[in-house]
Amino acid sequence: MEPLNPASQTDRLAAILERLKAKGLRLTPQRLAIVKAVLAHPGHPTVEQIHREILNDYPTTSLATVYKTVALLKAEGEILELGFGEQGSRYDGLRPRPHPHMICSRCGEILDLELDDLDDIVARFAASTGYAVDSHRFDVFGVCPRCRESG
Amino acid sequence: MEPLNPASQTDRLAAILERLKAKGLRLTPQRLAIVKAVLAHPGHPTVEQIHREILNDYPTTSLATVYKTVALLKAEGEILELGFGEQGSRYDGLRPRPHPHMICSRCGEILDLELDDLDDIVARFAASTGYAVDSHRFDVFGVCPRCRESG
DNA sequence: ATAAATGCAAAGACTTTGCAGGTAC
DNA sequence: GTACCTGCAAAGTCTTTGCATTTAT
């Protein structure tokens, strides 16, 4: 996985805002803050986490707005819903292209994995089933080394 | 995917009951009915569906018991929690070994997919991360041919 | 100006839990 | 007989929705 330098994130932020504006969507301060928070988050935040981070800058933002905005961003293809987790769905705004994850079922840590063949595999599935494929999800569950030691 | 003949399902039912008994768990009529229903179900039933099917034979079985039993069977490794779906988690009692799924986001249809390399891929992930892997989940989302025509 | 977005609170869907009574062993 | 299981209802989470108010354009 290529390193994510700040410059590319700034570009991506601008590009996202551009696309939203082009579709006639309004760039409210809340939306701006949410997009920024998702992009800046190194991991795979829940809606709760996004909300908490935003409250620093925009203390009046409601959880409902975060839910609505996250759903919007997902519908627009700007972020990825990972969809697992005991405390709600997790989102990934860094790499909207799906990629495999390794998830610790003890502490919840999530690592990004690399699988070059993935697109080919999915394309083969699409061909054999006749489905028009939109996305996919590949998650591996286990116990991370740290939890194994302390467990 | 090899065809599932009735004989192998009967064997599997007996084997599951055997293992549960060996662990000192009680074989109540409700549990028996739930295991049977999960094994007999050709698809990937939700807890609601399992409950509805059981009500024919054991009309007093509560939803809570189905939840508890399904959690038990999952913990014992006898069934697989697929974990997606708008109306609750889905379960697979036919092949507790994880396998990829193709899911229609329009009508909810779920196909089982075949990927021979999957165990190797997961083993490689385990090796590179140091995780002790328990299970995995590989779901592909799209629109099935039927929905595409009528859409 | 006005159509769209926010925030609040209430409702919804799925799941878990506590406990009294029942039951497999 | 006893530890375990069931069923009920209540509570818990996460998420969505309706509507009056605010706001980006």
Largest interface: A-B, 32 and 32 residues
CATH superfamily of the largest domain in chain A: Winged helix-like DNA-binding domain superfamily/Winged helix DNA-binding domain
The proportion of strand residues of chain A reads 15-25%
How many strand segments of chain A? 5
The average pLDDT of chain A is 89
Strand count, sense and closure of the main sheet of chain A?
3 strands, mixed
Tally of individual domains of chain A: 2
**What is the chain-wise order of helices and strands of chain A?**
HHHHEEEEHEH
Strand line-up in the sheet with most strands of chain A: 4-3-5
Query: Helix- and strand-based class of chain A?
Result: alpha+beta
The Cα radius of gyration of chain A reads: 17 Å
Unreliable segments of 5+ consecutive residues of chain A = none
**Given the C-alpha coordinates, what overall shape of chain A results?**
globular
CATH topology of the largest domain in chain A: Arc Repressor Mutant, subunit A
Quaternary structure? homodimer
Determine and state the CATH class of the largest domain in chain A: Mainly Alpha
List the total number of helices of chain A. 6
CATH architectural label of the largest domain in chain A: Orthogonal Bundle
N→C terminal distance of chain A: 30 Å
Helix content of chain A: 40-55%
Family (chains A, B): Belongs to the Fur family.
Cofactor (chains A, B): Zn(2+); Mn(2+); Fe(2+)
Pfam families (chains A, B): FUR
Keywords (chains A, B): DNA-binding, Iron, Metal-binding, Repressor, Transcription, Transcription regulation, Zinc
